[in-house]
Each structure stands twice: as structure tokens, then as C-alpha cells.
């Protein structure tokens, strides 16, 4: 009987120990789980912080870039124009184009791009009020016609009956081409192909118009959307020597900006987005 009691006691003690072990184990698990949850929570909250930091930093970078672009455009007043705008097309030795076939309208007996007919007529009228002899010499020229014109100039230079070689003495074709390139462009490289260029002068000879009149006409040109394209000191960017009669339509806002900042069309377009 005593033995039985002892056994019961020891079973009871073992049972208690077992319960304790289980209880401790459970408690430990609980503790680990709680810590993990807490860590997870901390991690996720730090993730959120990072994300919110990222989003706030990206927001602020967007904000700063927006404010930069706003401030730069507002400080420079650069028009909201693009390189691809129809009135900013560049046709020259570096940007040759095939026949553009622009829609045409006649002003002062010359073909011009129909989109600038009104502006061209208004500009001519204003120029005539400065000097009644102002008239259009040329407007739109097709690539085919430009080719004929260019070849004729080359032949004249070769024979000594040209604009540069007026000596009456024959020169080589290579030399003649060099001469012609100072006042005419090979086919596909003249902006007369766009119908946006107009040769206007009081006379029919190059650079022979009264410089005072040229200055006055040049000054009013931006009001009608035109610039004197090949100005003195801009030869490096335009690739063409000074021409006192070659006006180019670019739109009022662009013309005003270019004139105010003394930029050639080529320099101006380089500042614009595509
Ligand atoms: Zn011209």
C-alpha cells in the first residue's frame, strides 16, 4: 500500500513537471511569436516609412523638377514651341529635304506657303510703307526649279558672268560651285522649298538695298512672324552669308524671341524640345 502511495506521488509529481514543461514551452513559443509579430510589425512599418519616404522624395523631386522647369521657362520666356512645329522646319546643307509640295497661294505675284499668305501680305504692305519699292522677288521654289537655278548659276560663274566671278574669265566647275554656294543652295537644301521663305527687297540685286531701309524692315518683321534669316554674324550657325532680302516665316512668338535674344533659327530650334 505504501509502495502504491509512493508511486502515485511520483506519477503526480511527474505529471506536474510535465505540465510545467508544457506550460514553459508554450510560454516560450508565445514569447517568440509575440517578438516576431512585433519585429514584423516594426519591419513593415519601417518598409512603409521607406515607401512613404520614397514617394515623398519622388514627389518632391517631381515638384522640384517642375519648379525648375517652370522657373527656367519663366525666367527665359522660351516659347512653348517644338522642333517639329511646321513653321520651324529647317532646310539647309545639313538638313536636305525632298520636294515638300506645300499648299500654295499667290502674294505679290509669287507663290508662298498658303498658311503664311495673310502674314506675308501684311508684312509686304508694312514694308512698302517704309519704302514703296519693296517687292517680292521669290517665294516658294520647287526642288526641280532650285536645281535648274543652281545649275544656271554654276554655268554663269564658270563663264565669268556670275555674281561672284563677273570677270569674264572662265573658272573651274569646282571653283564655280564654291562661288555659287555663297548665295544659292543646291536642290533640296534651300528653305524656299518650304514656301516659308520670301526674298523681298527694293532692288533685284543681292545686298544692294539701302541699309537704313533694311534695318527698318528687319525691325518690323517679327510683328508679322518673319525674321531676316541670314544675318551678319550668324554665318556660322546658318551656313549662309549675309543676305539683306531673305525673310523666313517662323511665327510671331518665335520671331519675337529670336530677335530679342539675337538667335538664328538654327540656334533657336536647338533650344527647343522635339
Ligand atoms: Zn532667299
Automatic annotation (TrEMBL):
One annotated GO molecular function: carboxypeptidase activity
GO-annotated biological processes: proteolysis
Membrane-spanning intervals of the chain: 7-27
Domain D-alanyl-D-alanine carboxypeptidase-like core: 111-251
Alphabetical list of InterPro entries matching this protein: DD-CPase-like, VanY-like_core_dom, VanY/YodJ_core_dom, Zn_M74/Hedgehog-like
Compositional bias of kind Low complexity: 44-76
Region Disordered, residue ranges: 41-81
Listed name of the protein: D-alanyl-D-alanine carboxypeptidase family protein
The organism's taxonomic lineage, starting at the top: Bacteria, Bacillati, Bacillota, Bacilli, Lactobacillales
